[in-house]
Amino acid sequence: MDEVVEETRDVRVLRLVREDGSPFRPYEAGAHIDVTGPTGVLRQYSLCGEPSDLSGLLIAVKREPDSRGGSRALHEVVPGDRLTIGEPRNLLAIDDGADQHVLVAGGIGVTPLLNMAHELHRRGAAFTLLYFARSRDEMAFADLLSSGVEFSSNVLLHPGVPRREQPAILRSIRETLTPRSHVYTCGPDGFMEQVSEVFGETVGAGHVHIENFTAKDIDTAGDRPFVVEIDGESYDVPADRTILQVLEEHGIEVFKSCEEGVCGSCVSGVLDGVPDHRDNCLSAADKAANNEMALCVSRALTEKLVIELY
User: Fold this and answer.
1) In this structure, are residues 131 and 109 in contact, taking their beta carbons and an 8 Å threshold?
2) If the chain, 310 residues long, is cut into consecutive pieces of 10 residues, what is the mean pLDDT of each piece?
3) Domain spanning 3-90 has what CATH number?
4) With contact defined as beta carbons under 8 Å apart, do 77 and 4 qualify?
5) Are 152 and 146 in contact (CB under 8 A)?
6) Topology given in CATH for the domain delimited by 226-308
7) What 3-state class would DSSP assign to 263?
8) Does the model's pTM come out above 0.85?
């Protein structure tokens, strides 16, 4: 890490560089990375810099009051400290077929959308970035977005707008969209649900893309055993075990990170059977297609699933 910027009272931006000074590999706009801080706690953070600048990666870290050591530790690091990060992964990719793109951010959820805005501007695509926060002082990158980027005219800042008044603003943007338009949102759960409800009426649920780093509560009371098949071998998954746990117990290595259905690390292909989606990483369209699932939390609605690892 070679630079730290105190963006707001509770948000700081870290610029991460490789120890040998070499550039990072290209990644898709909207990606996030795993970051392991000084306390050993692993968390996911969205990249917020320009995707074309591979000399360093930017992440914005909000200090959470109930932090278990992740965000708090990253608010104490200084330039020169060493952090361990993973390769960028993407759950919020830009749809190349959209006629218009609407990015709707709530609070620190602006981070992946800022990254995407840079890329959309580079492409010359039609887009609007709406940014809501409790106050101007709590808006990370507010000054940058107001006048520090070439696409400032595409940005609408809405500090201090109560949640109940936000749908009216969203509907005014919705009127300009078509069924070919796509919407991308990141922020608190209730905020994203509201965005999905408003825009889904015009663009359809499959064209509303959500970035969520919060695990949802899962009711496991009715869980039943089922069988999972991979590479021609079948394994019993008991009611109290996950697919991920069973595969690892049989020596099958699965890429994983959060193990809460949030980061998307363990998302794998479904070749046969119907999954019971319980994750917070796949989009509504992905879940409806039933050809992918998160092995750490999702189960089966059929007696057997045939899967493949990515």
Assistant:
1) no
2) 95 96 96 90 92 97 75 92 92 93 97 98 98 97 96 98 97 96 94 95 93 77 95 96 96 89 90 95 86 96 96
3) 2.40.30.10
4) yes
5) yes
6) Ubiquitin-like (UB roll) (3.10.20)
7) coil
8) no
